[in-house]
Amino acid sequence: MLIAADKFKGSLTAVQVAERVEAGLRRAAPWAVVESVPVADGGDGTVDAAVAAGFDRREAVVAGPLGDKVTASYALRGDTAVIEMAEASGLRHLPRGYFAPLTATTHGTGELLRAALDAGARNIVLGVGGSATNDGGAGMLVALGARLLDSDGVPVGPGGGALAALATADLSGLDPRLADTDVVLASDVDNPLLGPKGAAAVYGPQKGATPSDVAALDAALRHYAELLGPRAADAPGAGAAGGVGYAALVGLGASFRPGVEVLLDMLGFAEALDRADLVITGEGSLDEQTLHGKAPAGVAQAARARGLDVVAVCGRLTLAPGALGAAGIRRAYALIELEPDLARCIADAGPLLERVAEQLAADFLVRQ
């Protein structure tokens, strides 16, 4: 039994999901051999998944999205670091109900990258997702040595809105260690930087941007890209995390890969599949988004290629059986079926997940 599930956002980390599923399986089938590989797709929980796989957790005090100091974690093993952008520049660092779409900065993400370089990292996975920012990664580049100046030669202010005043973009001062560092942009989205499918239009409203804010941000990012390199603006992943993907591609020489693919490779998932008879995946909500680069879809695709059955656990399920089957998931178990009250379902997710795992074991495990 291989448990390879993502977090249940707002309820359980991926590690906690694995622990609860294992507890339920062992009650129903104490003879079963159970292994877990907590997974992520580059967004929230990526560092936790890496630490569960044997990486060391490191911490650095960096600028949060509003410029105040926050303590952010990254993961390190040998010369490989896993950076989770949300640790430094995520929505989690904003006061409840407060957004700053025009001024939030990725400066702290750049500081986190620099801390990893200082620790000896020369292979860096930059997982993006859950960001509070829409600055095109400008703050990240500045933290790594770039100079972004207005027409008076003064550094432009923080956030995507300030990029409208950008007159000079000088990347010659970027940390020279980056030239010898392999950076992988790990994202579950492949949006371009600009336009109706770009960073501002698609993700700006999630970060509090009004329609006029979206228009202003898209225009400012277009101006920014004209100075740094317009071709990269159309590259897959350039629009990820408010455009930090663009900065990683054009400034850090990053290569783009779907986040779940990167994480599965790094966490030793292929080796674990060699030992598995049944794979259990899942996340908080199995819905249409799951089919587009989320962790359960990646797990199911890899397991199906090995001829393994895959079942899923989730908080809620909105996918029809046909869609699940097409994704390689044979059956899904939703906590909401046991507890219809959403608030109680979220609060009691752990015990409910154990009950679901017991039922799963009864349905799929045959005592040898």
Automatic annotation (TrEMBL):
UniProt keyword Translocase present: no
A GO BP entry: organic acid phosphorylation
Record's keyword terms, sorted: Kinase, Transferase
Kinase recorded as keyword: yes
Stored Pfam families: Gly_kinase (PF02595)
Superkingdom, taxonomy of origin: Bacteria
Alphabetized GO MF terms: glycerate kinase activity
Family statement: Belongs to the glycerate kinase type-1 family.
Protein name, entry field: Glycerate kinase
Species for this entry: Actinacidiphila oryziradicis
